Amino acid sequence: xxxxxxxxxxxxxxxxxxxxxxxxxxxxxxxxxxxxxxxxxxxxxxxxxxxxxxxxxxxxxxxxxxxxxxxxxxxxxxxxxxxxxxxxxxxxxxxxxxxxxxxxxxxxxxxxxxxxxxxxxxxxxxxxxxxxxxxxxxxxxxxxxxxxxxxxxxxxxxxxxxxxxxxxxxxxxxxxxxxxxxxxxxxx
Length: 188
Ligand code: IMP
What we know:
The protein is of the alpha/beta class. It has three helices and ten strands; from the N terminus they run βαβαβββαβββββ. It binds inosinic acid (IMP). The site of inosinic acid has 18 residues, from β5, α3 and β8.
């Protein structure tokens, strides 16, 4: 049976979120921020991040589909739930769990930019630069990781594992039969 191995612990993630929030608080001091989470993967990261923000915050969400239920990107991004808030003239921070090929964020960035925000930046928990297909950088990124398929802390495999408190690597080929491993850790 395959095992989920811890890639990032809860305390490592929380420390990193504190650091990201400190930077965002400094950069947006005196401004109101519209924080837009990309569903579903960003929901846990965004919930922790916004609770550390000290500037006035409005939250909104977009939902996109790009992967279906597999671990490979289809390359097609589709908005399945648009934002409720207006973007024009506002300071917008797009929050995502992970950049992989970059297709999702590039698409959403261009989509929001066309609506005339006062500023637009991107905050991601994880970055897998090895798999990039389009040139895209996050303004605030937590961790750069190798090309593992990871789950937990909002990230899923076939909609499962989002509730796990840390980030784990899914063993290649062992997706159907996995169990949590208490110890064991991959070196990043
Ligand atoms: P991109 O468009 O290829 O950059 O993919 C972004 C989306 O793919 C993320 O929002 C995730 O939903 C999903 N994704 C990419 N890599 C992983 C992973 O390792 N685990 C879980 N989801 C992933």
